[in-house]
Structures are given as structure tokens and as C-alpha cells.
Description:
Layout: H1 16-34, E1 40-44, E2 47-51, H2 63-72, E3 80-84, H3 90-97, E4 102-107, H4 110-122, E5 128-132, E6 145-150, H5 179-186, E7 187-198, H6 203-212, E8 215-225, E9 228-237
The structure holds S-adenosylmethionine.
Amino acid sequence: xxxxxxxxxxxxxxxxxxxxxxxxxxxxxxxxxxxxxxxxxxxxxxxxxxxxxxxxxxxxxxxxxxxxxxxxxxxxxxxxxxxxxxxxxxxxxxxxxxxxxxxxxxxxxxxxxxxxxxxxxxxxxxxxxxxxxxxxxxxxxxxxxxxxxxxxxxxxxxxxxxxxxxxxxxxxxxxxxxxxxxxxxxxxxxxxxxxxxxxxxxxxxxxxxxxxxxxxxxxxxxxxxxxxxxxxxxxxxxxxxxxxx
Length: 245
Ligand SMILES: C[S@@+](CC[C@H](N)C(=O)[O-])C[C@H]1O[C@@H](n2cnc3c(N)ncnc32)[C@H](O)[C@@H]1O
């Protein structure tokens, strides 16, 4: 993605120091957070959330609160929303809190689906329903949405298990490559997609995928922590309306 200054190609081309740093962060995140054996509860951006084993922790990982806060600032009155990769459900709940009429929360990890349904009930948002799905596969082909939200796994590499799917998207981002084209096909003409990417993701690849899906994108928010930055993009169907198959 073009982040203002220059187009960045990362992830598969980390410097040796960066690669060591990323390996260490993954080791500790995987060992002590993603694969913990016990369920826990947390409070983030106004929600009480159960975090089941293997589910992305919405408090420890800072992207969740950043994206949730952004969504809660929108007016989504009457909108039909879908989320790809819901984890604890925090972003879907935020969309509901912002007024969405219906929110479908999808995740490939069955524990995330369970957590999101639990958290929807716990926080009183019956318009949020979670289902197991690989990207949009569980949604009938003709179904389109006003809003798509996603904070996909940031790194390439084979996931070790369901928990690691929050982190690794497969070699060369295999598991999320179809996300962009599928999203373009699922958006209403005036629809919007909100996508969160890390500065350590392969932003140039994401940019190519966005364009080749017939989507245009603009960066709408950024949060920097000293080692990394998180970017929020708004994607919409490009003017040409020509979406390649
Ligand atoms: C970085 S986590 C984000 C979780 C949550 N949205 C949040 O912001 O706290 C990415 C999520 O995407 C899910 N995921 C990964 N690959 C997926 C796929 N192909 N289809 C659906 N969900 C997927 C993971 O299981 C994980 O829950």
C-alpha cells in the first residue's frame, strides 16, 4: 500500500535484525498468548469480552482497540456489515454499537466463532451472528454488504494451528489472497471496506491485490507504536466498475 511517502515491500524481505525481532515477538505471542489453555475475560472499548483459548486477544494486541474505536466513531445506522476474521468479535460488536442493522462475523477458527457469539450475547447485541467460514465461503454467492471489515493476519508463513491463523496467512499470504476480489464482489456499489494492515505486512502486495480486484483505497487512520505502525484503509469499488473475474 502506498502509505504517503513510498510504496513499501516488506515481510518476506525483512532485514536480519527485523527478522530476529519478528521471530521473537511471534515466539512469545504464540507461546504465552495465542496458545494459552485457559479462557479469560477482558474489557476493551466498552465491551466485556470472553477470550477463549486460541482466540486473538483484543486487549494485549493493540490493533483491536484501535480499529474498534475507529468503527465506533462511524454512523453505521441501518447498514449490513460483514467481518472477515472476527476473533473475539470486538470489531463486529463495534459495528453494531455504531448502529449496524445486521453484522455477520466470520472466522476460520471455530473457537473464535464460539467466542464472538458468546460476546454478542454477553454485550446484548443480538444483530451480531458469528459463523465458521474461510473468507466468504459460508455466505451465499448473491449476498452483498454495505460494509466489510477485516483485520487479517499480518504475516506470511504456514500457520501451525488455528491459533496461529491470527498471525500467519500462509506462504506468500496464500490464505488471504482471495480476500480482495471476494470483497469487491460482495460490496454494494456504494459500499465501503475497512481494512487494517501492519507496517510489517507486505503492503506492496496488498496494494496490487486491491487494484487488481477493482478497488481503490485511501489511508484513513494510522497508529504508531515504537516498533510498528498500524494503518487503516478505506476501500471502495473503483469508478470504472470493472471487476475482473
Ligand atoms: C489479527 S486476528 C483479528 C481478530 C479480530 N478481528 C480483532 O481485531 O481482534 C485475524 C483473525 O482472522 C482469522 N482468519 C485467518 N484466516 C482466515 C480465513 N481464511 N478466513 C476467515 N478468518 C480467518 C483468524 O482466525 C483470526 O481470528
